[in-house]
Amino acid sequence: MSCRWTNHRLWPTLAGSLVTLLACSPDRATAPPDAGGPDAASASAALRTRTYYVAADLVDWDFAPSGINQISGLPFGEEEEIFVTPDEDRIGSVYTKALYREYTDASFTTRKSVEPEWEHLGALGPALRAQVGDTIKVVFKNNTPQPFTMHAHGVFYLKDSEGAPYDDGTSGAAKDDDAVPQGAVHTYVWPVPARAGPARRDASSIVWMYHSHINEPRDVDTGLMGPIIITAKGKAREDGRPKDVDREFVNLFMIFNENNSWFLPQNIARTGADPSVDPDEFEESNLKHGINGYVYGNLPLMTMHMGERVRWYILGMGNEMDLHTPHWHGQSLTFMGMRTDVIELLPGSMRVLDMRPDNPGIWLYHCHVNDHITAGMLARFQVLP
What we know:
Elements: E1 2-6, E2 9-13, E3 49-62, H1 78-84, E4 94-103, E5 128-131, E6 135-142, E7 151-152, E8 185-191, E9 205-211, H2 216-222, E10 225-231, E11 247-257, H3 264-271, H4 279-285, E12 287-291, E13 302-305, E14 310-316, E15 326-328, E16 333-335, E17 338-340, E18 350-355, E19 361-367, H5 370-374, E20 378-384
Parallel strand pairs: 3-6, 5-10, 11-14, 13-20
Antiparallel strand pairs: 1-2, 3-4, 6-8, 7-9, 9-10, 11-12, 14-18, 15-19, 16-17, 16-18, 19-20
């Protein structure tokens, strides 16, 4: 008997006596048989490949693009200005970051437009979707001067699609995924077997994450992270969305530590900020307590209607300061069969909650850690009649 950690719960599964790993071509990959799963016989069937064109781009990212505190509707106060207003010892709210951005094809000349309901992703990369039995293929191009990768959680991959450099006993082509230099392209192939999808007591879809993993702490603080949404077999629409859900939101609660970014020297040079004026305040000002890279309510207003089936995919990342407790005002949600309006997040957490909004209005949504409230980890959502 073996156990795995799925959506933060351990579920025993029968281990198969033999797993045969078949080589993957760029356009078609074969997932491992579903050991002990009800769909094991379908493992040999042709798989659908969902292809994404994703680049790491240099972006001048604004953590507070409106220029005001959207929670209060007022200009930033003295305490808030530390995090968002430029000064001789502060960079302000705009930082050069590396972010994952989706393109229309392998030429990487045209950015794919973002649908209005997904503008809330903000600094996150595109949501990569599949249903169990599919294969995710990501054609990745690095448009930045720093080597980066794409490493996925949850899904299946061979060593040439892991996206993490370490002494793993491989060589040659199996190392090409470990560090993609400026201007280079690498194709990651991630089959989606049953063990990457919802377990028996999960919802119809679950969330994983992907991020760069050369120097994982610095890569993520620089901005390279995004969601993977996997829907159970037979429960997905044509585009991969779960059939039993009307609306979805993905939120990352994380303190972007810009002191740890690969591009801190460029940000200092661009703004002329002098860290030596007040080193402590400079470091503090570079801790951006955000939701999807926005602070003080600048996250685009997440909108839904009363009675809709709303699914929230919540991610946590960062370091020991990133102990978060997202709280929804005015509504309740279900998580693992429990009714709640607050969820606990640790770095590396991936949570799925369902909501049936029944109370119209604009509602506060924030981390409940006091220091994080003060530093701007707040947003709003709207329930329409």
